[in-house]
Write a structure and sequence with these properties.
Length: 416
Amino acid sequence: MAALGKLAKGWGRSLLRPGGPREAVGRRGVRALRRSPVRMLPPRKERGAAAEEQQRPREQPPPPPPPPAVERSSAGPGLWYEKAAPGDRRLGKVVTIAKSKKFRDHHGKVLLEGHRLIKDALEAGAVLQTLFFSTVGHLKELPEAQLKRANLVKVKFEDIKSWSDVVTPQGLIGIFSKPDHAKMSYPAAQLASSLPLLLICDNIRDPGNLGTILRSAAGAGCEKVLLTKGCVDPWEPKVLRAGMGAHFRLPIVTNLDWESVPSNLPASIQVCVADNKEPGAQAETTSVPRGAGRAGSAPGNPKAPVKSKPKAAPEPEDEEEAADVCVPELAVQYYYENWTQTPVAVVIGGETHGLSPDALHLAASTGGKRLVVPVVPGVDSLNSAIAAGIVLFEGKRQLLWRHKQEDERQKFPVVG
């Protein structure tokens, strides 16, 4: 009776709990559903076939088709070229990369376009790596010995036209190693006509102006051109086109800081600057604000050359004025007055910022002068390329006249 009492009491408690015995049965069913299902094995025949399939070596995918054979043709004895296949992207890739200054500096390569420029480069000793051309006739107009050492690729003229920056491309694009002025062989006629006249470009940033300045320097017979830091890269395509081959007619030393400029100049040289100071005007301050020091100005009444009087520079009010520094006094005169000595250098400043204080300090340390190109009153300062051409050719005239006078004195010495 005691056991039946305990059983009845336990049964009653389970009935009082929520769910009761049915809930306990439901939970056991859920646990049964969560168990992993029974794995069904296929018949023995199918299992044996699957095992054999796994043991059988898998067939390798077919190899990719070989690249099409390069079509090579002869343009003369020992002169071979390849014809670009349809879809060849080498030209577009090389042209796009070579137009980047970062690529030119990192890989030491430059892009030249056109028959005249490529021929001048080859004759000066520049190393040609790859030449893209549209007709075989272009090869016959270039030095054959240099072409034999390069990779020649014949492409469609439409491809060259699509990648060219020229309005009327000639069908020639060459990739050269970046020329080193110390290893170049300049034309004999250029060397024979060279004068003790040098040009220093100070912060020339416009590609067209720099190319024109280099062309004027070559035409005037300059001995050398120095480019300070801040000037545009002379191997940029726009500079090359404006230079018309001047890069391969005289040495061009690039990316110089002002501390290293004197070491690239001959001893006992005089450095003059093309400026916009009036011969009769006196400097109000000795600071060089932005935009000052540009070549050419509207003249007043011509007077004898005078020296600018120094004055204490005002205290800078902001960071831009803090960059203004005191500059030394220089004699000021017109460009057509006698200013040439042997040797002589001319500094041309950029149109935006003009001459830098470093240029004026260099001129003062060599006894140089400010050279003014007079223009009609009210006209702004001259374009830097035009001012450079005027001053350089006047320097050439004075030097040639001086040499002629010396030759006459040697032929007819003065007795007395």
